[in-house]
Amino acid sequence: MNGFPTFYIKAMIKNPIFFIYLSFVLFFIYFIKDSLHITIFRFVTLFFHGYICSNLFLLISAAWVISKQYETFVFLERDVLKKQWKLLFSAFIISSVVALLPMAAMIAFKNPLTDGSFLWKGLVHFFILWTLSNMLAATIGTTIGILLQHRASILLSLLLYGYFLWKSINTTITYQQKLLNIFDDHMQVMTNTMSGTIFNLNYFLDKLFLILLMLFLLLITYSVYRKKKTAYILLAVLVLLAMKGVVIYGEKHVQKIRAYPTAEFAHVPYAVQTYKMDLSLTNRLENTAELEMSFSAAGDNIKLLLDDCFTIDSVKVNDSLVKFIHKNNVLNISASYRPNETKKVVVSYGGDVQLEDELGVPIYYVTSDAVNLPGWLFAWYPTVPEPKPSYYDVRLDASTKIYSNLGIFTGETERKGETSSLSLFAGQYQTLKDNGLTYILPINYNLEDFQSRLDLLIQEKTKEKHRTLTTSDIQFLQDRAYKTVIVGSWPNGLDDEGLRLVGDTLIVNDSNY
Amino acid sequence: MRMGNHLSIENVSFSYGKNVVLDNISFACRDGITALLGNNGAGKTTLMNLLTGLKKPSRGRIMLNGIDLLKTKPYPIDQVGYLPQTFDMYGNVTGYDLLSYVFDLKKIKTNKKETIDEIVERFHLGPVIHQRIGKYSGGYKRRLGIAQAVIGKPTLLIIDEPTAGLDPEERAQFRSYLSEISNDAITLISTHIIEDVELYSQQIVILKDHSIAFNGSVAEMIAESITNIRTLETDFAALMDLRKKVTIIEEKRLGTDRYRIRFIKDKQDIAGSYQEKEISLENAYIYFQNR
Amino acid sequence: MRTSIFKTDNVFFKHYFKIYDIRGFKLILTLALLLLLFVYSVLFPAPSNYLISIKAKNLLKGVDDLYDYTVPLLAALMTAFAFFNDYKNQTYRFLGYYHPGPFNRPMVYRWATIVFLFCIGSFVSAGFYYRNVSFFGLTGFFLSVRFLPNIVFLSALMLCITALTKNSYAGLFVTLVYFVLDLFSQGRFFKLFSMGANAANFYYAISPEYYLFNRLLLCLAAGCFLGLACYQRR
């Protein structure tokens, strides 16, 4: 490698601004290092001061260097675009090296309970955010610097960068607004601490949008300084269209949580007696659910709730393939039944589970190391609303430890038991035991604090009217008769209790804390 | 037999809108120093910019060793070294970093460290080469400038106002550098300081009124002008009178109310004037600017 | 303005528009910005329930951000612009040489010109901005005058960093980082040294003493910055 990038790296760092910048970065690391005790993802979200500082440094340095028109360099470096690439490369090197500081802090001061896979995810997520925002700032600085070749380019660059900053800081409602956020999507809206960053389609579309934006800016300079102007303008237009395509595709494929049409199930004459599931959780959910159903009246259509995020491969009733329609979260199976009959319904289905709320916060998800499937709220298996207890026989093959109200699944495990719904959770958890109770809590929770807050929550419940908790449930809670406590995550509006009793398992909503 | 290098500027013209800056300039040079003289605004820097490809002439071509310099894409910076009038640089970069960068830009094939070390030694940059350019004195900056122009042994060196801002000792040293490096290269220097060219130039080109007033050697320049320059010793009153009649190119006070002047000979000779056996290059230059 | 008894100061004023502000371009630009501010303030005033809202500990960022942040930023950028050429080459040395003494008084005068104009402009415009609350009464006076420390502080910070590092971009960088962080942290980051005391409603949400101390501290800090910037080390 010849000396090109080192020269501009030296020009950019051998000045007082760079040392001020480094001092700021170290200061910001110190200022929010306590967030590392929560999770490293919280640190990555809150480190936006550092991103802004770094972006400003690279933007100002790049614009300054490129707007300096030294005669010797004008003679030696005739290709302005090559100079731009050199500067961008230098910016990338500087950005990458300085990134080591916060990354070292993340490794050194992380919560000791952080799993290796989450640590890597956090580091990668940070590096992506850091690099992309820095490169965008450098691209803005060099592009405007090249086009204007005047010191006023710095002001214009700052104005353009300021636009992205403003978009990033304001709460994003539309998908397009979210794409213009150059920092962490959850800066304005806190998410749960268990899931970490989910590298899903949305994530990559989000980053792709920024890359396309940078490409667009570069193509503007190409169209000004190269001969085949029409070709570059056309390419720039294509890139713009691609960006629009990302918006349209993303909007269409973003999975949003929807209310289920539970009214349709008001008087269904059937119930599920047993569930037998052959479940696989990797980055997708694949399940073959065998339902033993009993019928109290006659009918020719079996309706079950199953979320639209799943694609059904086949439905069999008593080992014969049957027709079905899966729409609006309802699975309609064409099968006739008579009173007092039992039938075996086998549904094979699978899908990516990455459901978000209106603000883009992941609500229900399945990844290789994080799962949030509260069974009473999210129809991740065929069910009816407010089901009576059924017998569950679940064989689960997962790449990570799964906590549920039937027990813990590790690797390939089978669990059985009677319960009204099956909920599965996985992520950044810790398992604690106290007085015969098992607590499965996020890694940043302190047991004593949690216990006192839980007591407070239960006391509040005794004073309120309830939709789902019975008097015996309240007594159960007050007596601490549950055996296991799991902290899950669901939107407060969907369940007005903030906690759910499923058999002898108490599931508490992380949103309360 | 070594042919040497050849630069040919052929019918080159340049204008800024309707403002003619260079009008049909033609001359040729070989290895050695060719001095481009002219008053401020004569078009010297413009001609430099045309040679370096930073501006395009409206007419004409520039041939370096048979190759059209301006049509060669990319412009051969490995064959042309350039030192502009204002050699300014990022103040926080060291001299060594700059030379290293220029080495890479010119895609020089020799060993980098050896080449740079040799250049540093040649131009006596050792004490400052690892210091920031922002700390350099004017002399060292100029030496660094010539070092970056010369690195890679280019065929053509274009140097605009080589000794601008240097003290007499530095100027003398700089001239000897120029003389050294011009042995194997065409060195075109643009200046209005006569001492820069007197001792070492093989060829002088004088620009006046956007065209060439003279093109030849120092001896030819003096020979052509000496017959047209007269010398006269006179008093102050006569001097005042003569100032209105002739173009005086030099005045020297000899004593109380006694002056020796040199002036350009007009149709009418001045009584008592005579032709000197020798004149200075400066006198010759002023003659060509004023004839 | 001509209060100095020193000859070189008189020369400075005499040549101000030939050396420091050619044909008054910077002055015209400043006045144009202030005119825009005035027009905006006249067209989009603060709501009449402003005082009631802030007494209820609400943070009216959308109302106060203009004078808490935007106007000081404009003043700081004008300061950067006014002193940019001083540090482009080594012009500051030349200028400093011709104004000997422990303090570079022309530097103070140049800074004060911009800051004074912005202060007057901000004060008058804010008077119209808050006219639905109080139009140039005592309340109106306090509502307008409370923003002045921000202007003084941010422009002094810009000048100080620029002068200490001899680099305009360093001044721009530090000032912008401070500004952005203070703005987006709503005063939580810099606390007593925050410019957002009004937007973040320090007076009611924290305490009047805290608020007054913040205002005083910004003025003191501005004085320190100015001293550091203009002190000529010989």
Number of helices of chain C: 12
Span between N and C termini of chain C?
A: 28 Å
- Sheet bearing the most strands of chain A, described? 7 strands, mixed
Averaged pLDDT of chain C: 87
For the secondary structure, the number of strands of chain A is: 22
Please report the distance between the alpha carbons of the first and last residues of chain A.
Answer: 53 Å
Shape of chain C: globular
Question: How many structural units, i.e. domains of chain A?
Answer: 3
Largest interface: A-B, 20 and 30 residues
Number of helices of chain A: 13
- Strand arrangement, major sheet of chain A: 1-10-11-12-17-14-15
How would you describe this protein?
The complex is a heterotrimer of chains A (513), B (291) and C (234). Chain A has 513 residues and is of the alpha+beta class. Chain A folds into three domains: 4-254, no CATH class; 263-426, Immunoglobulin-like; 428-513, no CATH class. Chain A contains 13 helices and 22 strands. Chain B has 291 residues and is an alpha/beta fold. Chain B contains nine helices and 13 strands. In chain B, the strands form three sheets. Chain B has a six-stranded mixed β-sheet with strand order 6-7-8-3-9-10, sandwiched between helices. In chain B, strands 2-1-4-5 form a four-stranded antiparallel β-sheet, with helices on one face. Chain C is mostly helical. Chain C is built from twelve helices and no strands. In chain C, α9 (148-165) runs antiparallel to α10 (168-184). Chains in contact: A-B, A-C. The A-C interface holds A 15-17, 20-21, 24, 31, 48-49, 52-53, 56-57, 60-61, 64, 151, 154-155, 158, 165, 169 and C 77, 84, 165, 167, 169-170, 172-174, 176-177, 180-181, 184-185, 189.
